[in-house]
């Protein structure tokens, strides 16, 4: 990899590349940027992977972390590549075993001109020296096994209290999708596999702090059955959740993809549930049917937020505020994040990670305007951000969804 350099995003606003909340450190969308925010290798996917990983390592160093400290890695990429190809390409930069839980998401768009990949990471300093390290292997289809040699790919990783599971479709061991095009059946299959992985790590779905998923669809009628299928596997109090539309998935026949993160402690040799502080201000919207999900929870000095959207306040009717207008809806959505953080004694300035999905035609100018609005609402330097443009969000009226983690 190239020599160390301080890189930057191509936006005018002051922004952090890394941050920490509790024991966890975060890097937002690391790409193949130079110190002026330009992509070094426009359109060159393999070179951008290398450049993004080098920049990730540089950002982690600011939090006294290295690539060996990464627990969860997530790549949003735009290339005609199979997910397993990308996982293999990323894994070679992580020499120590177990490798991180690696999640991949194919996207039709990237936030900045010439960009083909951005990489987000959650790390924990020194976790490999801790007494409680556990991992579960992820089955690799036979056609892709040569990508990894004799290494084991991680489905789930437990680094002390923190647990990360790689995102997955309903792909079976042989590489085929179960129940092609049946989103409800696929959702149950995925959640059952996640439950099995968590059980092998001494945890359960009830220990989840964050669910993040994707589905094909642009109407409530398409979203709701899959949502109910996922929610079926939790009881109250559940995790905070973010689920947004997707426009590409691998392999063929997959219509949804889900990942979870969890926290559970080991005490006197027993695995124990970690209680969480929970606040849900009355102004903040609710789902259109009863769910076990929460909007904001705090545990282990970190506040986890569910995906916030510009839905009507004080309501569970699902109506949108300022329909179809990205910048006004972004300001309104950030007001919900401010509302959620306030009962924890925190504000948007305490965010250490923001993950932002927004409607775009794919131009850099739209991303830059969106980032400016975020910065105005944060009221200072932007935290590490992952900016994911989408041809359409949930429907034409809803243009943005934002979640984050704050120092607790």
Characterization of the model:
By secondary structure, this protein is of the alpha+beta class. Helices cover about 20% and strands about 25% of the residues. The protein has helices at about 45-60, 85-90, 185-200, 220-230, 325-340, 365-380; strands spanning about 20, 25-30, 70-75, 100-105, 115-125, 135, 155-160, 160-165, 210-215, 240-245, 255-265, 270-275, 275-280, 295-300, 300-305, 350-360, 385-390, 400-405. The strands form 3 sheets. Strands 6, 7, 8, 9, 10, 11 and 12 form a 7-stranded mixed beta sheet that branches. The two termini are about 35 Å apart.
Number of strands: 18
How is the main sheet built? 7 strands, mixed
Helix proportion: 10-25%
Overall mean confidence score, pLDDT: 96
> What is the overall silhouette?
globular
Q: In terms of per-residue confidence, which ranges show pLDDT below 50 for 5 or more consecutive residues? A: none
Instruction: Please report the distance between the alpha carbons of the first and last residues.
Output: 35 Å
Global structural class:
alpha+beta
Radius of gyration: 19 Å
Proportion of residues in extended strands: 25-35%
Oligomer kind? single chain
Helix-strand sequence: EEHEHEEEEEHEHEEEEEEHEHEE
Q: How many DSSP helices?
A: 6
